Amino acid sequence: MNGEALLDVRDLRVTFTGRGRQVRAVAGVSYSVRAGQTLAIVGESGSGKTVSCRALIGLLPPAAVVTGSARFAGAELIGLSDDQLRGHRGTDIAMVFQDPTRSLNPTMRIGRQITEAVTAHRRMAKAAARERAVELLRLVRMPAPERRFAEYPHQLSGGMRQRVMIAIALACRPRLLIADEATTALDVTTQAQIMELLLELQRELGMALMLISHDLGLAAHYSDEVIVMYAGRIVEQAPARRLFARVRMPYTRALLDAIPSLERPAHAPLPVIGGRPPDPAARHAGCSFAPRCGNAADDCRAAAPPLAEHEPGHRWACWHPVGAKAAAS
Amino acid sequence: MTEAPLLAVRDLVQEFAVRGRGGIKGGVVHAVSGVSFDVWPGETLGVVGETGSGKSTLARSVLQAPRPKSGSVVFRGTDLTRLRGARLLQARRHLQMVFQDPFGSLDPKWRVRDLVAEPLVAYRVGGAAARRRRADELLELVGLDPSGHGGRRPRELSGGQAQRVAIARALALSPAMIVCDEPVSSLDVLIQAQVLNLFERLRAHLGLSYLFIAHDLALVKQVSDRVAVMYLGKLCEVGPGESVYRRPLHPYTRALLDSVPGRAARPGAAAGGAGSASTVISGEPPSPVSPPSGCRFRTRCPRARQRCAAEEPVLRELAPGHAVACHFPLADAGPDTAGQEAVPAAGTTGRSGRGIGEAPR
């Protein structure tokens, strides 16, 4: 499996230092993504899902210390200088963020923002760059692309702005596209449009796609493989369909149970767990989820369970997984 | 008391002037265009809509902040639109609001206990000691520790805790109804579930009614007795939560339901399985400055015909308590509706009439 991996991340760690504190945002994460695959990374705020992805392309503040390994098509990314990373950004790995209004320049016509991305890595005649930009707008199914080319971001709706962001991300034909909460700010009907677009583009262009999201439902629906993160670690990983059919990690179970579902009767209390994720600056022995976990026992507090492949393709980090008895039969 | 609605909104209209270049009047945003509904004591009416549907404007218009352009808002037998000054304040005392961003609605310089007691000060309820006692009581009610959290300032709280403070504050004057505008949208899913359960617990304990506004369908269904679906300033469907979700009558409601990940198709499976009518709705909502003629959804509707452009559909009851504003409602509405041309509702009768959002004339 590692042989065909486009991106192979091994023991990635990110620590922020400042004010005499050390905050471990990502505490040893390993996974790989193949070409054409859609991998979702799911977690709550502060779980390290965004930081771990930004670390890959050097989009973290200087106070961040990144260790471990991330090989993209065999080439190591961690430890590269900013100049060296710039060669990878856009052409190998591109990213789409949550808030398109903050990523787009409000004073610049969107056409120019796309042509800028097109010519960033390749010298090109002005007319050719323009043509390519319109082609990109057409690729992301922008209605009336020639007209939109001359418009400013504020003249577009949220969904159309996100289409522009995707067009910019695709300008240099990346092999891996990371969508970081790319549809979170959008309405449910627009979200469906953008997700369908991303999956179509992935098929057309043969890209690998990483979806970073807090939304387990979205992850389940649109990805092949799901990683669940908690307190800087991967706590469960499985093919999407399998994960939701046979959840093992109590944290994943808690996340799934807490989501209001259309199938639930109204007013039925949602199963909830108390507490909050641990302070990432504090060091503690044992499983980081143990203080909130219904299955927790003494061994959970003594030693952290390693993430291991307990069943084919299904990894989890738990001493007392849910459904263990049912699985034995 | 149980025979009269707690809140009766009729033909509510709210419009805003937009200015073009150089401050010249550019047009009028038709944010809310003739919305009518009732909320009964102890009931939760959920309002679902996308960005720009006018759902937040609806909430604010109910609270007279700012005043609606026309229509009536009768709360506990008094029309709020006809009151001003001290009498409006007095009437609105029992109608409180919880917003999406708790930090935006809590003064960062104040301590939690003072924030919760502030409405009591504003309405001159009790002495300082009594207010303090009441604030501690309220903090406990929403699951916060008065001695621990009471002395903190908003920035020392997590998002979930801050929203609990905002809820405690809304409860200070023992309201009959709380208008909630996206009250849990900024919270992580586990915290969101805790706060939703809190809303439900308070409802049961205090006999509260909610007007619960959100964009998330599943979330609205979770807390609501009845659900209203809003599109471009109008209600397109109102009915008991279960029947709106199981048998949507309006094509827009159906499209919204089909857009929920994991509903149209099973995880990992290709779309178009069992209920293969599921389609991703195309296009963008039209501008509320120039809404389409007739039915406002017709420009995106797969069922639209000529009549939809010519004639505006009004809400009519097709199933008990379940009303829709559509000329060609979804045919599989239920066993009791024969064909597409259902009989318009004759009127609100007894219990079944409770569900209707608009009294047909």
Structure notes:
The complex is a heterodimer of chains A (329) and B (361). The radius of gyration of chain A is 21 Å and the shape is globular. The two termini of chain A are 30 Å apart. Chain A folds into two domains: 35-55 and 80-92 and 175-262 and 270-328, 3-Layer(aba) Sandwich (Rossmann fold); 103-173, no CATH class. The longest helix of chain A has 18 residues, at 188-205. Chain A contains 13 helices and twelve strands. Chain A has an eight-stranded mixed sheet, sandwiched between helices. Chain A has 329 residues and is α/β, with parallel strands linked by helices. Chain B is α/β, with parallel strands linked by helices. Among the domains of chain B are: 101-174, no CATH class; 245-265 and 272-355, no CATH class. Chain B has twelve helices and twelve strands. An eight-stranded mixed sheet of chain B has the order 6-7-8-3-9-10-12-11, with helices on both faces. In chain B, strands 2-1-4-5 form a four-stranded antiparallel sheet. The two termini of chain B are 24 Å apart. The relative contact order of chain B is 0.13. At the A-B interface, helix 7, helix 8, helix 9, helix 10 and helix 11 of A face helix 8, helix 9, helix 10 and helix 11 of B.
Quaternary structure of the protein: heterodimer
User: Looking across the biggest beta sheet of chain A, what order are the strands in?
Assistant: 6-7-8-3-9-10-12-11
The number of helical runs of chain B is 12
- Global morphology of chain A: globular
Largest sheet of chain B: 8 strands, mixed
CATH architecture of the largest domain in chain A: 3-Layer(aba) Sandwich
Sheet-strand content of chain B, in percent, reads 15-25%
In angstroms, what separates the terminal alpha carbons of chain A?
A: 30 Å
